[in-house]
Design goal:
- It is an enzyme of class 4 (lyase).
- 50% of the residues lie in helices and 12% in strands.
- The chain is α/β, with parallel strands linked by helices.
- Strand 16 and strand 17 (457-462) form a beta hairpin.
- Helix 10 (222-240) runs antiparallel to helix 11 (245-256), helix 11 packs antiparallel against helix 12 (262-277) and helix 20 crosses helix 22.
- The longest helix has 21 residues, at 612-632.
- It binds nicotinamide-adenine-dinucleotide.
- The site of nicotinamide-adenine-dinucleotide has 22 residues, from helix 14.
Length: 706
């Protein structure tokens, strides 16, 4: 039979079904054509009575099957569309399970979602020992339930507790771990995988160890199952604070389906898939997936094709940020130089990079040998020796314009003309800084967030004279370093800090009005923010926050003025977590002990009871307004840039799809009305909607229409 997307080969009564055939994409997905073609192939195989077995494999080097096509899921308009789509996949995989001969999935490369669900329908799964071979059911991360029978078959393969862990977290497993879990029957070098499949045509009779059989026995018991589900539900609620529907729905389907047969179970799974895939939450998470995918490729202005290549790096400054940056460079094989003014400062930088690496060793993401090699690849020094070999410099010294300018002038004498120079400034003008360089075209801002190893966002800040090649090369480097870059035009607070400012400012004003700190913090946490504004200010440093607030106020005017309350705290040396006292008191390990009663005593004695929604409006309306001015000023080009920046930069709740996606869903007219009311009742300068927002609403447009 003629096939296009999937190859079919018959050899000695064994059928070899190969995915990713005639396909120029690096990742093969289960799109509509692949699903239809696989259905036809399986119908043929069902007719062949002499078949001894079927082996599913992939022609691709990095991908077995990356799951269902997300564009297909995103195109679902109704619950029944979704349920129908899931049923189609289930029917297909039932056909695999119902073949009269044994079947083996020989997995090499990425095997996710529908790819793993297909494999689970086979008699056995074997996998290559390649580091790119990864298996998992990540649907929950898109607000979905695995809909092609995954929640039915995985517990039957690995037992209930392990399958709940995999399905509810969406985590990925490498081949050896998958074997330990009982998901995979054998792990082999990729060259031998297809041949070894023939040895796995029978059900593996060997049971796991005693622990495994006890676990299986326990989960077969009705009461044990009840407890397992109860514990899983508690753990989900603790982790997600109840914001996410999908994990709870998954638990409902799996628990209710325990006594059901295949068709009854699968019909409730497809029903749940239909409900979830059109929910606003899943659409928001799908939106983030598409934004993130798009951000993986540079889409800005391109210059010549001859982009600077960053093989060797240097970090200027070995402080909080410099140590983290040196670690990032070392992790990416750039054997960086880390330069500071004193050996004591260098020691701090080494401590920082070493603790980042050790974290990886503890999580078994790195061997101790690799840690030693990479840590030793960082060269600490006080002078400029060896800077001629450096391709990328990231400056992370004190936040002072004059010092930075003089350091850049000196630096230029020590680096090659084609080296790229960047500043990690969090608030100073990159435009002004560029005037200190004789070759400003190779200079840009590269703003990492603290801590460097945890925070994915990097703002690439441009200025009038920067060359497109510099921006593009920095963008590509960030992607390679597994960061999420956003290209931002220079301006006070750049992108994230500018929009974050009202979040912290408004908290100060509310405190001064007598709203209790706990109510403010809770209102933000209940909105889905990872921490409240007072706790965040303590993390950033109240003194640092105050300096940045001043720069942003000076640059943008009274719209972003801050309450005088934080200055009062700075005067009393309450800097936040770094000196153990801020809005909260911290123990030696940096854990919150409780509110700082001295600060509480500085607040009005008469407390104001404010409705939680009102607190949220007071805080998030000025943020939306500020985001609109960011677009008006051309700081970034799209609403998606802002949402990506806030999700990856400050942990804006992903289930809301981003600040502007949230604004669009609330309705701009309503939000403008709410701002205008508060412009009258609270403060005109902070709440008057900006021209850009008014025009958008007048044109009946949303942020995502532009
Ligand atoms: N800490 C943060 O949360 C954060 C976040 C993003 C950006 N930044 C920015 O990163 C930069 C560094 O901040 P940090 O918090 O790491 O500061 P830090 O005070 O921890 O470290 C600065 C280091 O620079 C060194 N230094 C000063 N002058 C130098 C020079 N001429 N040559 C070499 N080293 C010199 C100091 O000795 C010190 O070790 C600042 O521009 C800051 O605005 C900080």
């Amino acid at each position: 039979m003629e096939t296009k997307r999937i190859s079919l080969e018959l050899k000695e009564d064994v059928a070899y079904v190969g995915f990713g055939y005639n396909c120029d994409k690096s990742m093969t997905t289960l799109d509509e054509e692949t699903i239809t073609e696989l259905g036809n192939i399986l119908d043929e195989l069902h007719k062949n009575k002499s078949l001894k077995g079927v082996v599913f494999w992939s022609h691709k080097d990095r991908c077995f099957l990356a799951g269902a096509d997300i564009n297909l899921i995103a195109s679902m308009k109704t619950e029944s569309d979704g349920a129908y789509g899931a049923e189609a996949g289930q029917t297909l995989f039932n056909k695999i399970e119902d073949l009269k001969c044994p079947t083996v999935a020989a997995v090499h490369g990425v095997c996710l979602g529908g790819g793993l669900e297909l494999s689970l329908a086979c008699t056995n799964i074997i996998a290559s020992d390649d580091k790119g071979t990864m298996m998992g059911l990540p649907e929950v991360k898109l607000g979905l339930i695995p809909g092609f029978g995954g929640t039915y078959r995985l517990p039957r393969k690995v037992g209930l507790p392990k399958s709940l862990d995999l399905i509810l977290t969406g985590k990925m497993l490498k081949a050896k771990k998958a074997k330990r879990l009982g998901l995979v029957a054998g792990v082999y070098p990729k060259e031998r995988l297809k041949r070894m499949a023939l040895f796995h045509f029978k059900v593996d009779e060997k049971k796991g160890g005693l622990k495994e059989s006890l676990e299986h026995m326990a989960s077969d018991n009705f009461f044990a199952k009840k407890i397992i589900f109860q514990k899983a539900r508690e753990s989900v609620l603790k982790k997600t604070k109840g914001f996410y529907q999908a994990p709870l729905k998954i638990l409902d389907v799996m628990e209710a389906g325990i006594m059901k047969g295949r068709s009854g179970y699968l019909s409730s799974e497809s029903q749940a898939f239909g409900e979830l895939c059109v929910s606003e939450q899943s659409k928001n998470l799908q939106h983030i997936f598409f934004m993130t995918e798009k951000a993986k490729k540079y889409s800005g202005v391109t210059g010549s094709n001859d982009l600077p290549k960053f093989k060797k790096g240097a970090a200027l400054g070995a402080g909080t940020m410099g140590g983290g940056i040196a670690w990032l460079m070392a992790s990416n094989g750039m054997a960086p130089i880390m330069k500071d003014l004193t050996t004591e400062a260098l020691e701090l930088g080494f401590k920082q990079s070493s603790s980042n690496f050790m974290g990886q060793v503890k999580r078994k993401k790195m061997t101790y040998d690799a840690f030693e090699r990479q840590q030793r690849s960082i060269q600490g020094q006080l002078g400029f020796e060896g800077f001629q070999r450096v391709d990328l410099v990231i400056e992370a010294i004190v936040e002072n314009m004059n010092i930075k300018k003089s350091v850049f002038s000196e630096l230029e004498e020590h680096v090659r003309d084609d080296a790229v120079i960047t500043s990690n400034t969090s608030s100073l003008s990159v435009q002004e800084m560029s005037t200190a360089l004789s070759k400003p075209e190779r200079f840009a801002g590269l703003h990492f967030f603290n801590p460097v190893h945890m925070m994915p966002l990097v703002e690439i800040i441009t200025h009038d004279k920067v060359a497109p090649e510099t921006v593009e090369a920095l963008y590509n480097w960030c992607i390679k370093a597994k960061k999420t870059p956003v290209v931002v035009k220079d301006g006070p607070g750049f992108l994230v800090n500018r929009i974050l400012m009202p979040f912290m400012n408004e908290a100060g004003f509310l405190l001064e009005e007598g709203v209790p700190m706990k109510d403010i913090e809770d209102a933000c946490l209940n909105f889905g923010m990872p921490m409240g504004p007072c706790r965040l200010l303590d993390e950033v440093g109240i003194d640092v926050g105050e300096k940045v607030a001043k720069i942003i106020h000076d640059g943008l005017g009274d719209r972003v003025k801050s309450s005088p309350f934080s200055s009062k705290l700075v005067e009393k040396n309450f800097f936040g977590k770094k000196n153990g006292k801020g809005f909260y008191i911290y123990d030696k390990r940096g854990k919150v002990e409780g509110p700082n009663e001295e600060v509480m005593a500085m607040l009005p004695k008469t407390k104001k009871k404010m409705d939680e929604t009102e607190i949220q409006l007071r805080i998030f309306l000025p943020m939306i307004n500020e985001a609109a001015t960011v677009l008006a000023d051309g700081i970034v080009n799209s609403a998606a840039d802002i949402d990506l920046g806030l999700i990856f930069g400050i942990g804006f709740p992903p289930f809301r799809g981003g600040l502007l996606k949230y604004a669009d869903s609330e309705g701009l007219d309503r939000l403008i009305g709410a701002m205008e009311e508060r412009a009258k009742s609270v403060d005109e300068s902070r709440y008057t909607p900006c021209e850009y927002l008014l025009k958008l609403a007048a044109d009946k447009k949303k942020f995502y229409d532009i």
